[in-house]
Amino acid sequence: MDRLYPLAPSVWGVGEEIGLDQVAQVPLFDEFAGLEGSAFVPVLLHPNPLNGAWSVRRLLVDGSQGRVIGEIPWSQRGRYEDMRRVEASLLLPVTTAEIRHDAAAGLFRTTVILPPPQLAVPRNDTAPGAAVLPPGDMVVVDTAAGEYSAEELAARSPGSWFVALHEVGGAVAATLGGKVLGGFAEADAAQLREFVRVAAGAGGAGGAGGAGGAMPVYARAVLVGGMAALNVAGPNEGLQTVPALKVPDLTPTEPWSLVEFPDGTWAVTVERAFVADPGDTVRPRHTARYVSLAGRARPEEVAAPTEMFALPGGASGAADQQATPEPRRVPAAGGDGGDALAGAEGYLTEVEKVRLRRQRRAAGTAGTAGTGGRHRR
User: Fold this and answer.
1) Cα(304)–Cα(297) distance, rounded to whole angstroms?
2) Are 95 and 11 in contact (CB under 8 A)?
3) pLDDT tens digits, 329-354
4) Is the bond preceding 325 in cis, omega lying within 30 degrees of 0?
5) CA distance 55 to 99
6) What are the phi and psi torsion angles at 201 (to 5°)?
């Protein structure tokens, strides 16, 4: 099939395992009867327009489609918004499923392995017909030797990107978007150099970076927090050809954008995080009352501190910390000798006001016992 879009089931060996609903036991018993342990097989993700789920279908060795073995619910599919680019390009995502037999229940359990949603679909494409190394282990990219600044790397994080690997002398360089992303340590460069040579020869692309402008070999790179690392394995685990997506990634890679209007005027918009100083952001104190119209709990950023850290030298820093004001008891209005709890800032909360009114009402009822009350006889 030429409509397949291979995904990296995991990033550096770690992926999300999503259990399938509506597992079809009959085809699994037909194919995996007598299975001991687990079997990892390639599967296709078919969008189901009726319920918004993904129908999971077996991908056979000859590239043909097998039977449906289950489905991923819409709640899980909705987390992978970038998959819409693949589906809008009329391509089918390919990933890996784990199949194991539950002897206690007498049924097969099936889970699909997918990368984290933000890293599932690369944000760019490879050159047409280029060979892509399969995903595998982490190989750190030395971005200090590249042409990208820290701000440019942060603007492209988090994300998965296809980078071209070029053999330059005895070293290997990774390029992204026509610029050098970085180099590699000596041991990693030696391994990647062997990968590139084998992949270029197996893919018929010629020597990477060789004469005549030969086609480079690509690998997946993950950018997280300004750090870059390859997600790569050897060509012996299976080279891939990844088709280009018709729907481009619209995530901005620059903190600013220029908008031109029909009358010739223009405007520049900048992301708030790049123009606002974090110290200028107004944040309520943890002693402030939190009110949520949606009934949500207090966010972590305005939660009360729960830990006290010791100062250097072993002295406790509790004395230097601002103590949380405790509620104190103040005389209740009316001079009846009762008291009520006042809030941390010296005012009564709504709950405390209701409690105070009830106390006054109870005291007034006790003082008028036997007088008949205020009702007519």
Assistant:
1) 13
2) no
3) 555 444 444 454 555 456 688 888 88
4) no
5) 16
6) -70, -40
